[in-house]
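Subject: Interface between my chains keeps coming out wrong

I've been trying for a while to get a sensible model of this assembly. When I model each chain on its own everything looks fine, but I need the whole thing in one frame so I can look at the contacts. Pasting all components below, labels as-is. Any help appreciated, I'm running out of ideas.
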Amino acid sequence: MTSLKNKARQDERDARVLKLYEQVLEIEQRLIPTGLHVFGQAPESGELQALLEVVASFDRFDPDPHAGAADSGPTVRALTGLIARGLGFESYQTLIERSGVSESGAVDRQHVESLLGRAIELFLSTPDNHGATAASEFLFAQAAVPLNESFAAFNLLNRIRAQLGKNSELDALAAALRGEYIVPGPGADIIQNPDVLPTGRNTHAVNPYLIPSPIAVQRAAGIAEALLHRFLSDEGRYPETMAMVLWGIDNIKTQGEAVAQALHLLGVKPRRDSLNRATGVEVIPLEFLGRPRIDVVMTVSGIFRDLFGSTMTLLDTAVRTVAELNEPDDMNFVKRHVLEQVRGGTGLDDATARVFSNAAGNYGTNVNFMVLDSQWQTGSELGDLFVTRKCFAYGRGRDAAQSRAMMENCLSRVELTYQNIDSSEIGVTDVDHYFEYLGGVSRAVEQRAGSRPSIYLSDSTNAYARVRTLEETIRLETRTKTLNPKWYEGALKHGFSGVAEIEHHVTNTFGWSATADAVDNWIYDEVAETFVLDQAMLERLKGLNLDSTRSMVGRLLEAAGRGIWDADEKTLERLRGAFEDIEDRIEGVVA
Ligand code: BEZ
Ligand code: MG
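Reply #2:
Try treating it as a single job with all components included. I did that and got this:
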């Protein structure tokens, strides 16, 4: 008996250690920007190794994502997958899955990753452009990776390295000012699409009729299912209604991954016409879907609205199509809710409105400005403002009409709110837009549904997308950025703007408290300790940028004053002292 109990205890301990190990690995492997981009300057070579490791862990498809279907296979395969298969494993993905639950899985995964790291080191350190050959031969010897396959990957890395080494941004700017032609290039980040290099080109967007691309459709299905799976395992059931945020720039970068996610959640795929334009939808039968169709309320940015008119019509068509399917309403939540409304006397057009944005010509939710200027008393004011700004319905024949009652009706049923993150450069605490949108809609739901929704983000910054709760995402961002010396020292190298950058992170973190109560107390404790209670750091910040330092200390005091942060009295006294001292300096009372 005792030995059985001991065994159970040991197993539990091992499982916890593995889980902790996974979390440490997640923090360690996350790419973070270590400093700001300086216009006209090539990035430092120090971060190249980490960047190339991530680039090399994605399968790359045809450079023109619309030219062929995604199932024609990648033209450059991910090195992680090649190494895993060369070593006799099924795939790198299965190693990642095993690594969270078994020690041997963790060891195998680490072996693959360390071979990748060593190969890229060799690639970077071998002189005279022989890096690709040396690294391919290394992987052949160590992991039986076919030379032609790894060579294709290293050729891509070679091109990226060469293009990153040059920078023609200033020349292009000067040419633009002279009214000369600037060569166009796509907009994305390097990991999503290496064809964005070289920089200094005239960034163009997309042809909205080609959105979502076949690759986006393929990737989106996995992410959307992972999202539902996470909710199912947290709550024990599927969400009937969810609210999703759609942004324009993200959908340019990913060729419409978030659009494809919305379609997949509804249980449809884009249907292309004879000109390859995604103008209709094809219903995925319930037998294939294997789950109910989710009712998706889409809150769309003004930029998305301007760029993707035809896509909004596509999304609206998807909702109308699903609402009219002849299916049981416990497998089709769109139909269930539309019928309920129609029975209550609402017209079919109103009952199927799901795509909401600003009034024509208007942008943003203004929730961020209200938070930044401390112009709010209760969270409900923030939720109300979100609805006021975003309650205009789009789609076939809707004419951007103000539809507040329709939007409020939809939000009153929402159980899950969601947004996709697709770039390691911009996360939930880097800019105020994530909290104005995802936070704003979550607050609006909380008031109207009577309880706070589950808030999730998916992270497709890696080859294997993950879904996290908002709280988990904020912890990860805080540990890897705001409180990470690598990140803040990188920012502080830029002096004045570096301090502003740190202050923005603190304020954006606060924005998540204001809109979604999603910030742990320890985060405020450690921000105060790192940037204010550490006298040497405080003096450094004040010397570089007094105004931003004042804003940051003021924001911490505001968090305590509003009851968001439970700080001890001694800490508060020191913060107040620091704030008064800064005010005196700004007012010139002391030098
Ligand atoms: C967008 O790409 O749609 C977007 C960008 C920044 C803030 C809000 C929306
Ligand atoms: Mg902005």
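Reply #3:
Confirming on my end. The mean pLDDT is 92.
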